[in-house]
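[stage:ingest] chain + small molecule (arginine)
[stage:ingest] validated
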Amino acid sequence: MDYKAYLAARLPVEGISREEIAESIAVPPDPAMGDYALPCFKFAKLLHRAPALIAEELRAQYPLDEVIESAETAGAYLNFRINRRGLAAETLSRIQREGAHYGDSDMGRGKTVCIDYSSVNIAKPFHIGHLSTTVLGGSLYRIFKALGYRVVGINHLGDYGTQFGKLISAYKHWGNREEVERGGIHAINALYVRFTKEATEEMEQEAREYFRLIESGDEEANALFEWFKSLTLAYVNTIYDRLHITFDSYAGERFYIDKMQPVIDALKEKGLLIESRGAQVVDLEAYGMPPFIVLRSDGASLYATRDLAAAFYRKNTYDFDKCLYVVAYQQNLHFKQLFKVIELMGEPWAKDLVHVAYGMVSLEDGAMSTRQGKVVWLEDVISRCVEKARDVLAEKNPDLENKDDVAEKVGVGAVVFGALYNNKIKDIVFSYEKALNFDGETSVYVQYTCARAFSVLTKAKEGGICYADAEILAPNAQEFELLKALASFPEVVAAAAENYEPSLIARFAVDTAQKFNKFYIDCKIMQAETEELRAFRLRLAEATLTALKNALTLLGIGVPEKM
Ligand code: ARG
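[stage:predict] done
[stage:export] tokens:
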């Protein structure tokens, strides 16, 4: 139930819309004040009365019912108490009914969202810098799906450029098939790095020729390129599997090479393309931006040109309502320029393009620092975190069953959660110790809470206790705080989509787990005073487990039953 809307519908203030009232309603910091409060300062000017007087007037005419139990003023505030039993009944039966779909909605029905994320570069390392785009994008993908949108996940591969000519040249000089097959992306990357360090002018010349050969459809050059590409994708797919990430399209930069011309023609036709030092550019000076380069002086296209063609292709192919680009903030200018150019072309959907920018992730751990240009492979971070998770778990619970499976869920979860817990634009310093702290604001804390709930429920079932139809009782303070958190989940999921901010779900998970643990410690479940109370509390524990599981699933984090 949306209590704010419910209250707003019963709080008529002349000259102020229901939506505005709903937005003004807040949750008091101290639950002793009430569950919701309407501050009346804002209305004083409009109504020519003191805020406290307005609060009192509204209170006098507020229709109390089985949903809202009391309305009281405290100065300029009008505080409401909701009917706790009503909240418990509604929330518990809804969670029970919807199960794994609790949190879903159909707000996106008939709408399409494209999400461009992870977007790896062929033959280049899949490194820690790709963590955020991969898990943020993956989580947004699941969130929008849960809200009923059609979602198109796009891995905009970096598969075009002169570097592939260099790679072929390096391979011809120093590589051999077995070694590359065996070493995969690491071997390919090593060849490329060696080229950048040791290539002679002759090899540079040769590389340009190989690039030209790829372009002109030469069979051997293309076979080599496709081989490098398939080795890279095979490698990244193993990591996507561990992170539970999927894509609907791998249309990369190369895919757009033959789709650029119509867009360039359109730019010309609209008089937007001008020549500048031999290059073809769109002038953006009026918008305080450097020119958007469409074609270099040698006629070659750029990353930006391919993105321009890609945007049109996506609009034409998917007819999206929104197209998200989950890309680091270093590319802020690129996307600002891109969106502006599309707007200048008169395309109304330019407003539906969104750059979902995020901050940098670095490691606290000195052993794998990015300093001295050392690349930190994402796979190494994940594996290391899983190893550390195994140690932490062994210490906590030496008899744990399914050690490998649990360590994988906990370790991978910690890396994912590390990237998703903070507001996305913040730079993050990842620490294994902190990420694996059972008592911190961590995924392992949430997972452990789930295991705790699971264990109580299992005990009850083994003892033949039925609680599915338990009578709903009036909740005490701890139960009520937990119930309120559980009830907020659908709103949290919607807000996460609206703000492109999975961290809201991560925070929900930690907050709810904290409230469950307070309830668990303060209130006896299996030893409750009465059978009714025990059954009610078990039902509450089950609802908590469902909501926490759903939250972690939306983030892409697995939930072990036992820990
Ligand atoms: N491959 C690019 C990089 O690593 C990211 C591509 C993002 N997507 C896009 N449509 N530009 O920087």
